[in-house]
Structures are given as structure tokens and as C-alpha cells.
Amino acid sequence: MKDNYNIEMEDISKFPLERSADFFFWEDFSYQELQEQVLDNLDTDKVRRFCGIIRTGSPFQLNDYYYRIKSI
Known about the structure:
Elements: E1 17-20, E2 27-29, H1 31-37, H2 44-55, E3 60-62, E4 65-69
Antiparallel strand pairs: 1-2, 1-4, 3-4
């Protein structure tokens, strides 16, 4: 994905993702679902911050869910 200045953001599309409402039970969540349900509704700065933090392996909270790259 690229931002408004045509700068590429961190690419998380190839990683298995998961989300949790309570930080205890994690469910699989595809990048396509994330894109359609969450990222398309956010401003560019928040998407850049989200992708950058998720890419480091840390969880990120958006609305009612925490998102992270699935740990193996």
C-alpha cells in the first residue's frame, strides 16, 4: 500500500494475522478482511502507524479488537 505521498507503507499482507476482543482468545483474520473491514475506513496516518506497529510483532488496538501477526 502507498500513502498520499506515494510512499510505500510496511507490507503486512503476507503474514498470517489474528485478532482478539479480550486479548485472551485470538481468532484467525485474513489480510483481505482487515483491508475491507478496517483499513479502508481509516485515514492514511493511522494505517501507516498500524502497519508499522504490527510489522514489529506488537499488537495494535483498533476499535473493539486487538490485531497482531499470528505467532507460531
